[in-house]
Amino acid sequence: MAVTLTETAAQRVRNFLDKRGSGVGLRLGVRTSGCSGMAYVLEFVDAIEDTDEVFEAHGVKVVVDPKSLVYLDGTELDFTREGLNEGFKFNNPNVKDECGCGESFNV
Q1: What is the pTM of this model?
Q2: pLDDT tens digits for 15-45?
């Protein structure tokens, strides 16, 4: 089981953590939401829980709770720019369908 970051995403997370001045990594999770059922959640991590799974990619820790890992296993987090828009992109092999707005998914 693994969750990874591209070099571009890792650099962006490092920049955010540096500006924030604290944090040990990035928490990636899912929550029930949207028209397709689930939505991604990104948060900074200040403390790692005993039950968390921790992955490291390009010097950045990615922390995932056990319930979310079932839906995120194999996911690669990237950071992309398309025209004037930029943001994190989830390349999740478990997704079966996404809503039209791109905010939620199901597996």
Answers
A1: 0.82
A2: 999 999 999 999 999 888 766 577 889 999 9
Tens-digit pLDDT profile for residues 64-87: 999 999 889 999 999 998 888 889
Element (H or E) spanning 17, and its range?
helix 7-20
Q: Could you give the CA distance from residue 77 to residue 60 in angstroms, rounded to a whole number?
A: 12
Owner of token pair 């001045």: 21
Contact 50, 58 (CB under 8 A): no
Q: Which long-range contacts (CB under 8 A, 24 or more apart) does 87-91 make?
A: 88/9, 88/12, 88/42, 90/40
Q: Residues near 31 by Cβ (< 8 Å), separated by ≥ 6?
A: 38, 39, 41
In three-state secondary structure terms, 78 is: strand
Whole-number Å distance between alpha carbons of 41 and 93: 17
What are the helix (H) ranges across 21-100? 66-72
